[in-house]
Every structure is written in C-alpha cells, then in structure tokens.
Amino acid sequence: MQMTFEATTSATLWFSSWHFMGWSYWGSCVGLFLFCLLHEFLTTYRSKVKQAISSQTSKQTGAANQQGSNTEQLLPRSQASSSLQLWHSALYAINIAFSYLLMLAVMTYNVGYFFVVVLGLATGHLLFQLPGLVSSELSDVCCVQR
C-alpha cells in the first residue's frame, strides 16, 4: 500500500476493478467532485430534518405546558415525529457512509483526488450551507460533539 502522495493520472478508487488512467482518471475526478457536492447537500438536508424534529418537539412541549403541567413529562411521540426521526437516522447513516468513502478516496494518496475532494466539499459548503439556512452543524459528522 502506498503511503506517500503521488501526482499521477492513474489511480484505483474504492474497488480494484476501478483503476482509472488518462481521460477516465479526469472523469473520476469529476465524479468525486459531484459526490462531494451530494455529500454536502445531504448534510444540509439532514440538518433541516433535524430542525423540523426540534420544531415538532418544542410544539409538543409548549402544548403540555399550556395544559398546566409544571413537571417534566414524557410526551408520546407523534407518528410524524417518529417517521422524521427514522428518516433523520437513515440520512445520518448515508452521510457517514459518504464520509468514509471520501476519506478512502483521499487515502489513495493521489494528489488530484485529494484536491478534488477538498475543492468539492468546500464548493458544496459554499452552495448549500449558507448563513441562516441551517444550523452550525459540521459536515465532518465523525467529529461532531453530541
């Protein structure tokens, strides 16, 4: 296994049968870039789903407080809230899988793949994570403190 960066237009990406050379290498770079954009889009979308869950939870808590409940109580989850939480968990799993695939692309130690992944994630962040649009959740989900 290679352990130093190499600046070539030949690389194997994820599977031994996916060995790209010449023009197919540049096509794989475009594909990686688009994959990074998709990753950032899903991160933003997952954050919006999380905000919707929080909004529903706060509405339920507010309704319970209006009924005169001074003590904290467990509220039954609505079916919509449960399905949103299930959807959020599925998006989280997809996001984690994408993160690991991008990490493996960088670990090919191919300079082109490294720069394409960094540029793709930065471009996706610029396009989808506009201020005020989503919470300050990080794209690198493996490092987010919960």
TrEMBL record:
<feature type="transmembrane region" description="Helical">
    <location>
        <begin position="111"/>
        <end position="128"/>
    </location>
</feature>
<feature type="transmembrane region" description="Helical">
    <location>
        <begin position="23"/>
        <end position="42"/>
    </location>
</feature>
<keyword id="KW-0812">Transmembrane</keyword>
<dbReference type="GO" id="GO:0005375">
    <property type="term" value="F:copper ion transmembrane transporter activity"/>
</dbReference>
<keyword id="KW-1133">Transmembrane helix</keyword>
<keyword id="KW-0406">Ion transport</keyword>
<keyword id="KW-0472">Membrane</keyword>
<keyword id="KW-0813">Transport</keyword>
<dbReference type="Pfam" id="PF04145">
    <property type="entry name" value="Ctr"/>
</dbReference>
<protein>
    <recommendedName>
        <fullName>Copper transport protein</fullName>
    </recommendedName>
</protein>
<dbReference type="GO" id="GO:0005886">
    <property type="term" value="C:plasma membrane"/>
</dbReference>
<keyword id="KW-0187">Copper transport</keyword>
<comment type="similarity">
    <text>Belongs to the copper transporter (Ctr) (TC 1.A.56) family. SLC31A subfamily.</text>
</comment>
<dbReference type="InterPro" id="IPR007274">
    <property type="entry name" value="Cop_transporter"/>
</dbReference>
<keyword id="KW-0186">Copper</keyword>
